[in-house]
Design brief:
- There is one protein chain.
- This protein has two domains: 120 residues, P-loop containing nucleotide triphosphate hydrolases (Rossmann fold); 76 residues, Orthogonal Bundle (Helicase, Ruva Protein, domain 3), CATH 1.10.8.
- The protein is built from nine helices and six strands, in the order ββαβαβαβαβααααα.
- A hairpin with a 6-residue loop joins strand 1 and strand 2.
- It starts with a strand and ends with a helix.
Amino acid sequence: MSQIALPLAHRRGTDPERIVVGNANIGVIEALREPEKWPFRTAILTGEARAGKSLLGRWFAAQGSGAVIDGADALDETELFHRWNRAQEDGQPLLLIVDREKWDIDLPDLRSRMGAALHLEIGSPDDAMLADLIEALASQRGLALGEGALTYLVPRAERSFAEIERLVATIDRLSLERKVPATLSVWRDALEAVQGPEQARLL
């Protein structure tokens, strides 16, 4: 499994946060390693909820590569424009993380600057990355998935970062509630709890 570990633990005494690397984010990571190539030293990062945008932002900042504004689309546009100008004056790369699916900018000057920036998007995980995500999330919880878990879960799971988190959390909860190992009956019931009955999913 390919992962990037952030240099600092996110809570005292815990392991460092880790970013699972796969098809959905490898292009973003490669671009974040070369901010000197960004037009106007500015990049905008988008992607679905729980895709790891903030994690990548913290990793980028930890490298000392530039500044990060997480939730840039929620800031006052005039303030954001001033912060962009300061970064330009300082010659500092600026990574803007955007949460909205569509970022409509009213301020013309800001809109033109953002239009010229490098646009990066975390995509949907393929089967290989999905398997790595399930393994990583289970490991974080100390959850031992039974033999054959990935073979069963990967073809049936939704290709969504948030839904994969929900699925692993549900497997963990059901296993604890029933006081049984996480095996086929638990995987099946967790999928049904998160995504609905299998027959309905196949229709």
